[in-house]
Amino acid sequence: MATLIEVPAGLAGVAVADTAIGDVRGEEGFYHYRGIDATDLARTRTLEQVWSLLLDGDVDSVDGQDGFANRLRADRRLPDGLPAVLAAVAAGGVGSDALTLLRTGVSATGSALALRPLWDGDEGSRRRDVVRVAALMPTVLAGLHRLGHGQEVVASRDDLGHVAHYLYVLRGEPAPAAHVDALSRYLISTVDHGFNASTFTARVVASTGADAAAAMVAGIAALSGPLHGGAPSRVVQMLDDIGSLDRADQWLAGTLDRGERLMGFGHAVYRGRDPRSELLRETVLGLVDSADERGRTLVELAVAVEEKALAALAERRPDRPLMTNVEFYAGVLMDVIGLPRELFSATFAVARSVGWSAHVLEQTRDRKIVRPAARYVGPQPASANAAS
Ligand code: ACO
């Protein structure tokens, strides 16, 4: 029997690839994209600039006629025939969650674009394919959502940035600048975060030479599990359940007494602060002035509940720092800008698709298929002959 290399459960701490795209330093409470602090990028750059940084290491020359931002405008228009397929997906998927519909819609997108296997392309065509699929994802998601609610698909507009365009094709009218800026910060701060399950999955599929849509569909599938992409809407549900600050102490204590977890707290990699939660807290507070009454009340409640939850967790778990994670204020942010809750996880997938596009492209430069082994623990064949 061949000697197998033993690795920890879940491949925790095992480096399975080299990447130059980004890194998470959990102990330091810091993460970066190609050497630049990701939260700084979220505060100061556009999604197009950060996408270009992930793909090419270029954050400054995306504008202009031949720039990346301009090419994205063409790439995000639904190809002929796709709206009819999306209408069928939306009609057939009533009751399915948005991420399931998006997964199916992205698969249909690959067919509509007649994508070839990444294996058969060169660097230029592979780059074009991964960007096209990821660029279409917000348009596909918005189209599916509208069709599922009996509305028409909104035609793309070329005069909007990528984040503003997502909100436009979702709502059918331009979004306020404050909403675009806040969502942009959220999306930029979550495009990439180390070798998480969905990024790894997308890279495994890319390593087989499959097409770009196949890799993205696999990423969405991995993200759909509750251990990966589902917490933001649960945070807002938790705040709804608490209802008002005078109920918070009792609600938090009761939840922890039952051995349940508080949504939006704790992290597998960060042992101290999650830098994304600080960025999003600041962003949500910046939205208060332009928010409606409901939004202001939600932000006030969230800030106060965060403080109480941190105190309750510190009291019960002095051995283990359990701090606010990205999902706590992500849920509040998306709710305050009026994104439907059913789209929270799918909007996270829209952000991650930007990171996946860079990872898939990076993976295809290595022509080695990812093909680990498993230790067989079932019954052995009765004899060597029986085995052959
Ligand atoms: N509330 C209460 N207790 C918690 C919480 C929490 N939010 N998080 C961890 N704990 C407790 C666990 O019950 C466990 O207790 P035990 O040692 O008695 O079994 C201990 O802290 C360690 O928990 P682990 O599961 O080992 O923590 P890990 O670091 O692996 O998990 C995770 C991280 C999954 C995020 C966890 O903190 C959690 O479930 N949080 C709530 C859900 C959530 O917010 N998810 C979004 C995460 S951010 C992201 O994925 C993008």
Provide the descriptors you would attach to this structure in a database record.
388 residues, 3-stranded antiparallel sheet, 17 helices, 3 strands, 56% helix, 3% strand, binds acetyl coenzyme *A
Mean pLDDT: 94
Name the strands of the widest sheet in spatial order: 1-2-3
Radius of gyration (Å): 22 Å
Helical percent range? 55-70%
Describe the fold and architecture:
- The protein is mainly alpha-helical.
- It contains 17 helices and three strands.
- It has helices at 38-44, 47-56, 68-75, 82-92, 98-112, 123-148, 162-171, 177-190, 197-207, 212-223, 231-242, 248-257, 275-287, 293-316, 326-336, 344-364, 384-387; strands at residues 22-25, 30-33, 36-37.
- The longest helix has 26 residues, at 123-148.
- The relative contact order is 0.14.
- The mean pLDDT is 94.
- Residues 231, 261-268, 317, 320, 322, 325-327 line the site of acetyl coenzyme *A.
Helix and strand topology:
Layout: E1 22-25, E2 30-33, E3 36-37, H1 38-44, H2 47-56, H3 68-75, H4 82-92, H5 98-112, H6 123-148, H7 162-171, H8 177-190, H9 197-207, H10 212-223, H11 231-242, H12 248-257, H13 275-287, H14 293-316, H15 326-336, H16 344-364, H17 384-387
Antiparallel strand pairs: 1-2, 2-3
Helix pairs in contact: 1-8, 4-5, 4-6, 5-6, 5-10, 6-7, 6-16, 8-13, 8-16, 9-10, 9-16, 10-16, 11-15, 12-14, 13-15, 14-15
Acetyl coenzyme *A is lined by residues 231, 261-268, 317, 320, 322, 325-327.
In short:
It is built from 17 helices and three strands. With 388 residues, it is mostly helical.
